[in-house]
Amino acid sequence: MFARRGRSRTSLLLLVALGALTPFMVALAPDREARAAISVAIEVHGGATSQLNCQWHPAFGACGTGAGSALDWANARGSNVYLRTRSFRSDGTWSIGTGTIVNRSGSTGCYRIDVDIVDDFAFSKGSLIYLHTQTWTPGWSVTIHGSPSGYWQQWVVGFTSDHIEEQQRGCTTTGPHLHQAASSAWTPAYSRYQVPGSYPGYLNPGQWQHRQSWQW
Ligand SMILES: [Zn+2]
Question: Rounded mean pLDDT of the chain?
Answer without folding.
Answer: 89
